[in-house]
Design brief:
Largest sheet: 7 strands, parallel
Helix content: 25-40%
Order of helices and strands: EHEHEHEHEEHEHEHEHEHEHEHEHH
Number of strands: 13
CATH topology of the largest domain: Rossmann fold
Number of domains: 2
Distance between the termini: 24 Å
CATH architecture of the largest domain: 3-Layer(aba) Sandwich
Shape: elongated
Structural class: alpha/beta
CATH class of the largest domain: Alpha Beta
Length: 377
């Protein structure tokens, strides 16, 4: 342990929304609560206000823009790190990581901060992505993330990889949670079409990755079996993929499911929506590094069904094996969901994927790195 407090800089493209952004805020708040100085560099966004309110500092640089001009920030960042006597430089995204790495590499090895990266996603394998394994310590957010690193980057020493799974706060997603009466009244008034129905929820932005067409096939098949249910697609449309959103809406209409599937758009009350759902689905057609929505649902005690790959597979294997389905196997998906609706399997209340575990492990890594991590070659 260091006698003086740490100064930690986290770097990412922006602070609008998303799991990486949420994790950045969570770590920043934890640092401040333990007496450390927390700084975040990004292009800004709606989460900056919360970040500042929780005690971190923010520096507004457009460090995530994929442009050669972004490299002009390398000497600026180098001066910033020196002037602020930064102990830990933590890069969470590829373009910011290149700026961080090039600035850090050119500093005095005896005085420069420790350089840490987090592999949040299963990125395309190329020289651009390789920067994410150049950290003196590389955080893998799941076993899937760790396996991806070891399989695709032979230069990544297993000893440098720290497995720190993401987690949820059980006080935010408490087991057995039920929404308050006023929320239920507003929800029921807004969505009378859900009255008396079993509810199946597919969360996530409307992008091709998320498996909306498989969800539509599932709802159509279950209704053909005369199951009285309703599907919710919870998530906003990507402004850059509006054609796909229109495609999904057309598929719902063409299958005659306009009264059986509701598009809710972006929602800030995902906890309440999960809590009134009978099942939460994760149908991404490509493996994701971590299945946060699956974990949030299971933390509440709500059954989840997902394709058996990536981080979702790990969570289901640990907490709800009955919900694992072979990736892309819609027939098995239909049978699994039918079985769980008719004979629900209980969700384990013993959840090791907690926010506290993640934050404590991250802070311990920072302290260990600052105190004793060997200098990179």
């Amino acid at each position: 342990m260091r006698s003086r407090k740490l100064t930690v800089v986290q770097v990412l493209p922006a602070l609008q929304s998303g799991g990486v952004e949420r994790g950045t805020l969570e770590v920043g708040k934890h640092l401040v609560e333990h007496g450390h100085r927390s700084l975040v560099i990004s292009a800004g966004g709606r989460l900056v206000e919360q970040l500042l309110r929780e005690g971190s500092e923010h520096v507004t640089w457009d460090i995530g823009k994929k442009s050669p001009w972004t490299l002009r920030l390398i000497p600026v960042l180098r001066r910033f790190l020196i002037e602020n006597r930064v102990d830990i430089l933590h890069a969470r995204s590829r373009m910011p990581a290149w700026v961080c790495y090039l600035a850090w590499r050119s500093m005095n090895p005896q005085t420069r901060p420790r350089f840490i990266t987090t592999v949040h996603g299963l990125y395309s394998v190329n020289a651009y992505s390789a920067v994410m394994v150049k950290g003196e310590k590389v955080i893998a957010v799941s076993e899937a993330s760790r396996d991806y690193i070891l399989h695709h980057y032979s230069a990544a020493d297993a000893q440098r990889i720290a497995l720190i799974p993401r987690g949820v706060d059980p006080s935010e997603f408490p087991y057995g949670y039920r929404p308050p009466p006023d929320w239920l009244l507003t929800w029921q008034t807004t969505h009378p079409e859900l009255a008396g129905k079993r509810i199946l929820t597919l969360p996530g932005r409307i992008t091709r990755l998320k498996g909306h067409h498989d969800f539509i096939e599932l709802i159509a098949a279950l209704r053909a079996r005369h199951l009285d249910l309703h599907g919710l697609i919870v998530g906003g449309e990507d402004p850059n993929r509006q054609a796909y959103a229109a495609e999904v809406r057309k598929a719902v209409h063409d299958r005659g499911l306009d009264k059986a599937i509701t598009f809710t758009g972006n929602r800030s009350d995902i906890r309440e929506i999960f809590a009134i759902s009978d099942l939460v689905l994760s149908l991404s057609n490509k493996p994701e590094s971590f299945g946060r929505t699956v974990l949030e649902a299971l933390s509440l005690g709500v059954p989840a069904v997902g394709y058996d790959h990536g981080g979702v597979s790990e969570i289901l294997r640990t907490l709800y094996p009955a919900g694992a389905v072979e990736t892309g196997n819609v027939a098995q998906l239909i049978e699994t969901v039918t079985c769980l609706l008719e004979n629900p399997a209980a969700v384990s209340a013993d959840n090791p994927y907690t926010l506290k575990n993640m934050l404590d492990s991250t802070l311990a890594l920072y302290e260990q790195a600052a105190a004793s991590l060997k200098l990179a070659g």
